[in-house]
Automatic annotation (TrEMBL):
Residues 1-20 form the signal peptide. CDD domains: Gnk2-like. It holds the Pfam family Stress-antifung. The chain crosses the membrane at residues 260-282. Residues 291-313 are annotated as: Disordered. It comes from the Eukaryota. The lineage of its organism: Eukaryota, Viridiplantae, Streptophyta, Embryophyta, Tracheophyta. Keywords: Kinase, Membrane, Receptor, Repeat, Signal, Transferase, Transmembrane, Transmembrane helix. It comes from Ziziphus jujuba. InterPro entries: GNK2, GNK2_sf. One of its GO terms (molecular function) is kinase activity. Residues 23-125, 131-236 form the Gnk2-homologous domain. This is Cysteine-rich receptor-like protein kinase 9 isoform X2.
């Protein structure tokens, strides 16, 4: 029994480690403004990224490096409202390194991951609504009853947006709604907490308008620098609430050791087989996903694009991964 327990713990840790890396989504480098290597601006940028990384134990942080407006750098990060402290820290740490690798001399940059986003600029953007650059990620499979689904989607994301805009310091909300049969709609909206209630609401309204362009799809998201919205037909965020553990009635009788062994051993063996299979599938999917990212990571227009979310190679975000689609311009 002890050997089985140790093996189970080891396999679970392997599965957890394989999921630890942040999921890269998109980045944008503004090529119109660049800085000279080893300049004061680069020194300030390096200091800013260090400050952001060292404060990644919180969900949101903003900072400015440099006193002179001509070479100061303003930046922030925002972690998704449901991720834990470890996932937030890992994502921000990765983002501070990757954004420099992808945009080595540009003054204005933004990078999105599934778990967080990070941006910086030579202009102060704190407390303002920015909708560019932007991107839409979509599932190319279609809904069977689009008219009815749009009504449900409209009511659900609007309710989530109202809750997030009035959410105080967090400005994050999730909502679920019954669709049909075993289908449930899951939605998530979030603003950067430095926005006012009115500005958060305005940003989400604009993002939701663009989300509706893909409302016949099984899933989609729209990413703005100041806010983002997403819906899927599967749970993609964490619910931090948990049910209380059942307790043994006071009058219950004791169970013999032999009975316990007879019950536990088959269960442990079944769990062992299940976790072995799960770890194998996770590692296999991870290898395919990483290989696909290397093939599809390219700079995209500032206005944004529709990016294929339905194929595992392009973006491992959807359940129904079967169809391909072409990237096309995202209307301004």
């Amino acid at each position: 029994m002890a050997l089985i327990f140790m093996l189970l713990c080891f396999l679970i840790s392997l599965g957890t480690k394989s999921e630890a890396a942040p999921t890269y989504l998109y980045h944008n480098c503004t090529n119109t403004t660049t800085f000279t290597p080893n300049s004061i601006y680069q020194t300030n940028l390096n200091h800013l990224l260090s400050v952001l990384s060292s404060n990644s134990s919180v969900e949101f942080y903003k900072a400015t490096a440099g006193q002179d407006p001509s070479n100061s750098v303003h930046g922030l990060f925002l972690c998704r409202g449901d991720v834990n402290t470890t996932a937030c820290r890992d994502c921000v740490t990765t983002a501070t390194k990757e954004v420099i690798r992808r945009c080595p001399v540009e003054k204005q940059n933004i990078i999105w991951y599934d778990e967080c986003q990070l941006r910086y600029s030579n202009r102060s953007f704190f407390g303002t609504v920015d909708v560019l650059p932007r991107i839409a990620l979509i599932n190319t499979a279609n809904i069977t009853e689009p008219d009815r689904f749009r009504r449900i989607l409209n009511a659900t994301v609007k309710a989530a947006a109202a809750e997030a805009a009035n959410g105080g310091d967090k400005k994050y909300a999730t909502k679920e709604a019954y669709v049909s049969g075993f289908q449930t709609l899951y939605s998530l909206v979030q603003c950067t907490p430095d926005l006012s209630t009115a500005d958060c609401n305005r940003c989400l309204v604009l993002a939701i308008e663009r989300l509706y362009k893909f409302s016949e799809r099984l899933g989609a998201r729209v990413l703005f620098p100041s806010c983002n919205v997403r819906y899927e037909l599967y749970p993609f965020y964490y619910n931090r609430t948990s049910s209380p553990s059942p307790t043994m009635p006071k009058g219950s009788s004791k169970i013999s050791t032999g009975t316990i062994v007879a019950i536990v051993v088959p269960i442990a063996a079944t769990l062992l087989l299940f976790i072995l299979g799960f770890c194998f599938l996770v590692r296999r999917a991870k290898q395919k996903s990483n290989a696909g990212k290397k093939e599809n990571e390219t700079d995209m227009p500032t206005k944004g694009i529709e990016f294929n979310q339905s194929t595992r190679k392009a973006m491992p975000l959807a359940v129904n991964e079967a169809l391909n689609t072409k990237a096309k311009p995202f209307d301004a």
